[in-house]
Design goal:
Strand content: under 5%
Shape: elongated
Largest sheet: none
Oligomer: single chain
Radius of gyration: 20 Å
Distance between the termini: 76 Å
Structural class: mainly alpha
Number of helices: 9
Order of helices and strands: HHHHHHHHH
Number of strands: 0
């Protein structure tokens, strides 16, 4: 039996974790290409080179599979954001590193960001909760840094942090959709400069009266 480049060859038994990873990889390709509503479990099983019963052994339904992918995608960007914040004590460099996280994420060849930022299923509360989790957890981590550095109250720090996250993800998606007239490196650095010029105006906590 021959296979196309788009379909993975059918193989023997795999360890459960390896099979799950394979199914998630195939599902990501299908969901990104077709969107949730147009994608079918048949398409995902065919892409993975498995039978539908094998697919259903791991994921009882299409929504379960989609949510597993969303969890994986959300974990990726939240972890990268936390790593960027922990990578240095220099706040200017922190802003730049965090901005690059979002640009790296949207430019990934897999296109996983479309599940998080451009989902066609956000009317479903489990999906909405996961999409909101990215903004919430990234903003919470950034707000902690802002609060420690400026002494601003928690609510003010969180509002500034949410604004920075919004600037990062909206500008990164705009950059991706407008044909890459600016390189990824230059675009992320340019927007990081804008963010830093705004946030550095708040006094450090040791400068508070």
């Amino acid at each position: 039996m021959t296979t196309t480049h788009d379909q993975k060859p059918r193989g023997g038994r795999m360890p459960r974790t390896a099979r799950r990873a394979q199914l998630l990889e195939s599902a990501l390709e299908v969901f990104v290409a077709q969107g949730y509503h147009a994608a079918a479990m048949d398409d995902i099983a065919e892409k993975a080179g498995v039978s539908k019963p094998v697919l259903y052994q791991h994921f009882p339904g299409k929504l379960d599979l989609y949510l597993a992918l969303l969890d994986q995608s959300c974990d990726t960007i939240i972890h990268a954001c936390n790593e960027a914040l922990a990578s240095t004590d220099d706040n200017k460099m922190r802003v730049t590193a965090t901005m690059h996280v979002f640009y790296d994420y949207v430019s990934s060849a897999q296109g996983a960001f479309r599940l998080v930022f451009e989902s066609d299923l956000t009317n479903e509360s489990p999906v909405r909760e996961r999409v909101d989790r990215v903004t919430r957890e990234c903003a919470e981590a950034i707000a902690e840094v802002i609060h420690e550095d400026t002494g601003l109250p928690g609510e003010q720090s969180r509002l500034l942090a949410v604004s920075l996250v919004g600037m990062a993800q909206v500008s990164a998606r705009f950059w991706l959709d407008t044909g890459h007239d600016i390189s990824q490196e230059d675009a992320a650095t340019l927007v990081a400069g804008l963010a830093w010029r705004g946030i550095r105006g708040y006094p450090r906590s040791d400068e508070q009266p």
